[in-house]
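Reply to dn_fold:

You asked what the input looked like. This is it:
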Amino acid sequence: MRFLLAALLFVCTFHTHAQNMSYTISKDSVSGEKVFNGLVTLKDLNSEPTFTWMATGYNAYQPNQNTIGSLSLKLNHYSLVVFLGTWCDDSHDLIPRLAKVLEQANFPSTAITMYGVDRAKTTTNGEEKKFGVKFVPVFIVMKDGHEVGRITESVSKSIEDDLLGIIEKDK
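and this is what came back:
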């Protein structure tokens, strides 16, 4: 009886998790890494044990605190749409940094929409077409449903400085 109850609990937990997952997982043909394709969250990325690049990059990054202070006052009027490749070195570098910047700026996770893409830069539902995504990662800054700027593949100075620059140009 105890075994049956444990098995039932496991199946229900797995089924619930599978229903909440809004991305697919496959294996990259080049690197062999896991590819998350579709709507993902930072929590999803942090929860994947093979994505050690998340914790390593997050812990190593030290954002400029003056810029973080300015961002925390202004960024809450915006939302972000992010496209990344879990197989992509540039995403491995910038996504953990973005996570730290957003956390330190007290940016709500509910204001971030994030999509994982495959090597062809496509998502399971074609969201990349709506935003014209050709390269990853890309951080698209949105206000009232309209794009006000984006950071694509690399930063000019830093994530926090580039985000602040986009916001300051939006007057």
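The chain has one domain: 23-169.
Hope that clears it up.
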